[in-house]
Amino acid sequence: DARRHVHFIYTMSFVQNAWYVAGWSSDFGNELKALTIVDQTLVMFRCADGALVALEDRCPHRQLPLSKGKRIGDTIQCGYHGMTFGRDGKCVRVPGQDNLPASAYVETYPLHEQHQIVWVWMGDPDKADPDDIFDLPEFSDPAWQAHQGSALHIKAHYLNVAENLVDPAHVSFVHPTTLGSAASENVPVHVRANDDIIVAWRWIRDAAPVGFFQDFGGFKGHVDRWHYYSLHLPSTAVIDFGSADTSLNLEEDDRDSGVRIFALHFVTPVTEDYTIDHWMHLRNTAVGDSEASERMDRMFEVAFAEDKAILEAIHLEEMRPQKRRPIRLAIDKGPTVYRKRIRDLIEIEVTENLGAVRSTFVQHD
Q: What is the DSSP string of 222-250?
């Protein structure tokens, strides 16, 4: 029922027509791997030719997850009655009968791998375009080092997780020893929104380097430092942050002259109460230094654990009865724009699924 499906999309508050990160390429091998994205269950495995496959993780017979079955070649055999499905989702065997019902299939999901990252399309497969997948030129630039981190499992709604990644104002208070300090508390935050990207940023001029750049910048005196939070809809974030000696007086477009790092967050909604943030970084310093990568990982793990604690506490409070609506402050412009953009995307999907609707409301000018 189309209307029931539309209601499901709206109430779940997920954008369906989008590429989401399922994991790093190294996360997927020959074994069956079950995962959930936007409350849809998938089973993934790598075929003999190396190609990844993502199928609906639910047998159409008795609904047992196919991930509870076993792999036979490039097929999956259901663990309940042995129905077997190929990499294209079509049933290839029903034990005890020769005919294969037309309804004996599972959905398939478009996949794309680039930069050792696995992306899966969760919506209308006819709209899946790999050219729409997030990318940065620094991935292929030998002057930059790419390093995959880990996955942060957060018991919170993905909208709270994502809007935290377009909010420079929280850094002074949540990360005072790693990514921020009191010097930025009263520095104004600027926001701009273009198409599918929301950017919030600020510069902190002539201040002591924060903990991260005390370790990796080698700065002796005061620095000019910046935070640029770019949120690519629906939920991929780039935090461009860095420092340069104050004497250089860097302009906005000259950040490569300083120590510059991109923290990348691929926020994947699992359910209404659970989000996975796959994080990594790109940097223009310590290129080729694996020890530096490991040290950065440890510092990022401290900072991201601080975010996780805040976001999970907020989620618990949001689930409790509310006496009044939360207030909004001037610093909330980025998150506010983000929430509206997500609502607009979901409304577009709902409208497309409903199709042409005959209106009972007639307006007379």
A: -EEEEEEEEEETTTEEEEEEEEEEGGG--
Residues 6+ apart with CB under 8 A from 29: 45, 46
Q: In this structure, what are the phi and psi dihedrals at residue 255, rounded to the nearest 5 degrees? A: -70, -20
Q: Cα separation of 317 and 144, whole Å?
A: 41
b (16+ CB within 10 A) / e for 246-272: beeebeeeebeebbbbbbbbbbbbbeb
Tally of residues, the chain: 365
Q: Which long-range contacts (CB under 8 A, 24 or more apart) does 132-141 make?
A: 132/19, 133/19, 134/19, 134/232, 134/236, 134/266, 136/238, 136/262, 136/282, 138/262, 138/282, 139/115, 139/282
pLDDT tens string for the chain (365 positions)?
A: 333 343 343 345 799 999 999 999 999 999 999 999 999 999 999 999 999 999 999 999 999 999 999 999 999 999 999 999 999 999 999 999 999 999 999 999 999 999 999 999 999 999 999 999 999 999 999 999 999 999 999 999 999 999 999 888 777 778 766 666 666 666 788 899 987 899 999 998 998 888 778 777 778 789 999 999 999 999 999 999 999 999 999 888 899 999 999 999 999 999 999 999 999 999 999 999 999 999 999 989 999 999 999 999 999 998 888 888 888 877 778 888 898 999 999 988 887 665 544 444 444 44
Amino acid at 199: V
Rounded CA-CA distance 330/184 in Å is: 16
| Helix (H) or strand (E) segment spanning residue 307 | helix 290-318
Q: What does the radius of gyration of the chain's CA atoms come to, in whole angstroms?
A: 23
Strand-pairing partners, residue 19, are 121
Nearest to 116 by CA among 135, 129, 98: 135
